[in-house]
């Protein structure tokens, strides 16, 4: 019996090829020169929208009962149980500046499960594709993720959002990850980064703030190439977090991201490598749910009060801090005769 998903794959491949040709051939030669001008941004936006209309029109002509979800506004429910998830131009800034790392990404869901993924990168001359249960391919060649290295030997891809606040948080997380891995790469296209995990050009990839059209196709391709994919522990890939890596690397990377996520959110003023020093708000210990935290060298300065929801104990009873300079030491910044410290092992580990 013919797999019905192979028909969806053929349509996705053709739609991606047509849109990719349009974007490549229709890009003005002087677009990068005008990259800082509003007119250049408008051209890219028009190309993005036109690409999505081309894809949805092609697919709707052939499958009028299907639904759509697209970056540029396509949103219809459909009645067939199939929904197409489309990023008509992933890597918009790369496209604007004439960099080659941009792609057309098309995925097909059947009853809520992603069954087909296509990422077409015209300037690379490559198309990655996958069908659920059928493996992943780069053009016609089967692809497979790397054997998992240790975290400190892993080449990890990531990305940053456009909003300043999100970008600052993502940078804080990356700064804490960089010393613990081989290196970080930021390519500018989530779809291509996920395919690079599938082909072994990256060992792992993570990013926060992605939308379904950013990762739907690439996530299936990485998974069919042997990667584990997901979000925060126990959750699937989502806007909150998307992670892809081989088994054996996925788990420690996901765990580490969860740890630094909490640190970055709780202590945004601490610079990478600094150690928080905790002191009481009164001689009796921290007030309910709050603690004064000082970051040695941190931008937040000493005496910054931050919310805390952890178990606390007098320093005389705390023995699990591994730093040679104990945060329980009395200092000029903390003149109280009694200091207090976190004692939960997971919080201690996240603060080393």
What is shown here, in short?
With 352 residues, this protein is of the alpha+beta class.
C-alpha-based Rg, rounded: 24 Å
Helical content stands at 25-40%
Separation, N- and C-terminal Cα atoms: 57 Å
The biggest beta sheet, please? Answer: 8 strands, mixed
Strand content: 15-25%
Low-pLDDT windows of residues? 266-352
Total E-strand runs: 18
Instruction: Enumerate the strands of the largest sheet in spatial order, edge to edge or round the barrel.
Output: 2-1-3-4-5-6-7-8
Features:
alpha+beta, five-stranded mixed β-sheet, globular, about 350 residues, single chain
Polypeptide structure, described:
By secondary structure, this protein is an alpha+beta fold. The protein contains 8 helices and 18 strands. An 8-stranded mixed β-sheet has the order 2-1-3-4-5-6-7-8, with helices on both faces. It has a 5-stranded mixed β-sheet with strand order 10-9-11-13-12, sandwiched between helices. Helix 4 crosses helix 7. The longest helix is centred in the N-terminal third of the chain and has 25 residues, at 38-62. The termini are far apart.
